[in-house]
Amino acid sequence: MRHVLKMFPKTHITIAAATSVVVAAAILMSPSANVEANRMAYALDLEEGTVSESGARPAEQAKNDEKPTPDTDTATTEAPELSEALDTATAIAETSEPELQWHEYKIKSGDTLSSLFGKAGFNDGIMLSVIHGDGEADKLQRLYAGETISFATDDAGDLAAVSLQRNLLETLRVEKTEDGFKGETVVREPDVKPAFASGIIDGSLYVAARDAGMSDRLAMEMAGIFGWNIDFVYDVRKGDRFEVVYEELYLDGEKFDTGNIISARFVNQGKDVIALQYTDSNGDTDYYSPDGSSMRKAFLRTPINARVSSSFNLQRRHPVLDVVRPHEGTDYAAPPGTPIKAAGHGRVQFAGWKGGYGRTVILKHGDNITTLYAHMSRLGKGIKNGTRVKQGDTIGHVGSSGMVTGPHLHYEFRVNGSPRNSRTVKLPDAKPVPQSEMARFKKHANQQVARFELFRQDYQQLALAADE
């Protein structure tokens, strides 16, 4: 019997089953023997997938001819109900889609698209037909360890779809259509909720931020926002405090990550600094003080995240030559290979070997300012004379080239050719909010400051309640 059923499509079998239920219900709900002969017979065509009325048997038809016509009420209630039920059964059968079987694989280092298709039971020919499909199907070739790839097969075992989950929010879906495979990237939008954190520094900023429930990434972002105004290596003191309003990201009601900092306050040695995130009418986002001044400076205070090993000192004794020679820059001790950032926008004036400086890059900026980066192990990618760079671009890596005793970065800041102490020189500000944006910014800033105060009050009330 099972072998016989396999000969028919599932849609036809579904119609047959639904019809059997309907006919059985009709028998149970049928009138008495007086109208038994008036029952309709229905023929089920499994090849065409249709249900039709068949004629009554000849003997029964003869009896029906002798019987009076049944009541109108009986004739008009039974047939429409049965017809409606049959229509419903047919619609369900036609709209039901075959259930796909999914097989999931976690991508590991060394996996290729071909090997993953092979694990799923498909050859390279099928793989090529998928990646040569329409839309974004070719993006399936870019795989990274940690991602998840899934293959869907239909009842016949043929490939029906491939799903590559990049992360919780982004999935590449390639599905089989009548014209071949077609790919599309599906991006889910997380629910964003504001959250508040507050901390007091007792040791390091990162420990205090972690104790406040912030991730290391958020702590680094906060340091980056205030980094133009505060040296977090030397300026921070015990008792300094911070307050941050940031984004928490949710999917299906579950928190999975944190987003950007919306607003923040840092009290450093009694000085109160507030930063507000603002997106202008062109879609550019940056951080500003409530009066519209940029939190950024035209230059980074330090081009590398490392400790100072030798300060700016025009009377310093040279460690190698043992003679008094001005130290016209600041040295930062760091492991070889540590990235070195461009302190500001500019153009490469020099890139190469420069005597005792070793492998060196000099950048020329506006306002007759130049910055020098020496003793590199290697230059950054694409760094050569004339190259334009942006603030924060990697221009090289820490090394020990030239006349040095160990790996470090030697950094100089010069104005009109004269050396300045990069850690104390007054840095020019980045551009403030333009006047054309000021009214829009002020409205946004007032809202952010008011919300910030509400968060702080709620936090303080919760803290007091917890202490009681």
Major sheet attributes: 10 strands, antiparallel
CATH class designation of the largest domain:
Alpha Beta
Q: Tell me what portion of residues adopts beta-strand conformation.
A: 25-35%
Structural class: alpha+beta
The Rg value, from CA coordinates, equals 38 Å
Number of beta strands? 23
User: What name is given to the CATH topology of the largest domain?
Assistant: Nuclear Transport Factor 2, Chain: A
Q: Average pLDDT across residues?
A: 81
CATH architecture label of the largest domain: Roll
- The total domain count is 4
Helix fraction by DSSP (H/I, runs of at least 4)? 25-40%
Shape: globular
User: What's the end-to-end separation, in Å?
Assistant: 76 Å
| Uncertain residue ranges | 1-11, 30-78
Count of helix runs: 9
General description of the model:
With 468 residues, this protein is of the alpha+beta class. The protein is globular and about 95 Å long. Strand 12 and strand 13 form a beta hairpin. The strands form four sheets. Strands 14, 15, 16, 17, 18, 19, 20, 21, 22 and 23 form a ten-stranded antiparallel sheet that branches. A six-stranded mixed sheet has the order 3-5-6-7-8-4, covered by helices on one side. It folds into four domains: 2-95, no CATH class; 101-187, Nuclear Transport Factor 2, Chain: A (Roll); 190-296 and 435-468, Nuclear Transport Factor 2, Chain: A, CATH 3.10.450.350; 307-420, Glucose Permease (Domain IIA), CATH 2.70.70.10. It has nine helices and 23 strands. The termini are far apart. The longest helix has 33 residues, at 435-467.
